[in-house]
Specification:
Shape: globular
CATH topology of the largest domain: Rossmann fold
Distance between the termini: 25 Å
Strand content: 15-25%
Bound molecules: NADP nicotinamide-adenine-dinucleotide phosphate
Mean pLDDT: 97
Low-confidence stretches: none
CATH architecture of the largest domain: 3-Layer(aba) Sandwich
Strand order of the largest sheet: 2-1-3-5-6-4
Number of strands: 12
Number of domains: 2
Order of helices and strands: EHEHEEHEEHEHEHEEHEHEHH
CATH class of the largest domain: Alpha Beta
């Protein structure tokens, strides 16, 4: 692309940012759509977040993505926040508005778009969420909003799963979610089969031989396993789901679509399916898969 006086800049704020796939997504989209926009990673050291957001506004940056560890920490430095991001309590996209930035969460709409494309439905499903961290909480809210019949949060630390379940029930205004420890899966009713979303860090590179639950008996209960991890592309969790005949997906399409939705917010333009596929291929190439 040609950088000139009209080039707009977007970027990623995080710590670390060195292994990000986001430049592959956004620069592919900008080039293909002939948008005079460039996307760069910004490594923001601890203690510098407020200065980074103010500086970004001062430098006329069009938008930012926010990643670990700043998705919640950034909220006090926003001018406005979208209602979904406020409910989830995490922001991964900033869009320039008068006087500052408006915060959005495109991770959950991204996961939803990825699931729709993969033919995975939430409505009426018994949803098992493995984990109770920031992303698991957001997935539970998404599942509640998209009509899950029941949500079970399974976590190593049971108290945390209980807290998230309570919050989800408050948001849903009914008792939809409950908590269970990882070892209690045998108490799940016989004959029921679940959509399982793997939202822990277990199995992520370099610990690729690990799964948060190893027992084959658990995987008999899973008809679809959605692992939010994308490195490796085929996780041990996915292997275990597949071994018992379930469908298994990784988190790469979620990553793609959170980026696409952010790009659409920044530019006001829609990304079509053919271009989404091109960006997906670029990401896979950047990851060497
Ligand atoms: P987080 O807030 O740190 O939560 C981590 C979760 O993993 C907690 O529930 C924790 O359990 C559990 N956990 C960690 N180590 C464990 C172990 N050894 N055994 C059992 N449980 C363990 O992390 P997060 O931000 O929610 O991220 C979760 C996952 O989502 C990560 O794998 C990340 O890569 C993925 N993610 C994917 C995308 C995407 O676009 N595909 C985007 C964002 C995140 P305790 O509560 O017991 O500590």
């Amino acid at each position: 692309m040609k950088i000139n006086g009209y080039t707009r800049t977007c970027g990623l704020v995080g710590n670390p940012v060195e292994h990000t796939m986001s430049p592959a997504i956004h620069n592919t989209l900008a080039k293909a759509m002939e948008e005079n926009l460039v996307y760069v990673p910004f490594h923001v050291p601890e203690g510098c977040l407020e200065a980074a957001i103010k500086g970004a506004y001062g430098l006329n940056l069009l938008g930012l993505n926010i990643t670990v560890p700043y998705k919640s920490q950034v909220i006090p430095f926003l001018n406005e926040i979208d209602s979904l991001a406020e409910t989830i309590g995490a922001v991964n996209t900033l869009v320039r508005v008068e006087g500052g930035y408006k915060g959005y969460n495109t991770d959950m709409p991204g996961l939803y778009r990825a699931m729709c494309e993969d033919g995975v439905s939430i409505e009426g499903e018994q949803v098992l969420i493995l984990g109770a961290g920031g992303v698991a909480r957001a997935v539970a809210i998404l599942a509640a909003r998209k009509g899950a019949a029941r949500i079970i949060l399974m976590n190593r630390t049971l108290d945390k799963a209980g807290q998230v379940a309570e919050e989800v029930n408050m948001i849903a205004e009914k008792k939809l979610a409950s908590a269970m420890s990882l070892t209690d899966y045998t108490q799940l009713p016989e004959g029921e089969r679940y959509l399982a979303v793997q939202a822990t860090n277990v199995g992520m590179f370099p610990n690729t031989e690990e799964a948060v639950i190893e027992e084959a008996g658990f995987y008999q209960k899973i008809h679809t396993g959605y692992d939010l991890i994308f490195n490796p592309a085929r996780t041990r969790f996915m292997e275990l789901v597949g071994a018992k005949g379930g469908r298994a997906f990784n988190g790469l399409k979620m990553l793609l679509y959170q980026g696409i939705i952010a790009y659409e917010l920044w530019t006001g333009r829609q990304v079509d399916k053919a271009l989404a596929e091109r960006a997906y291929e670029e990401m896979k190439q950047a990851m060497g898969i």
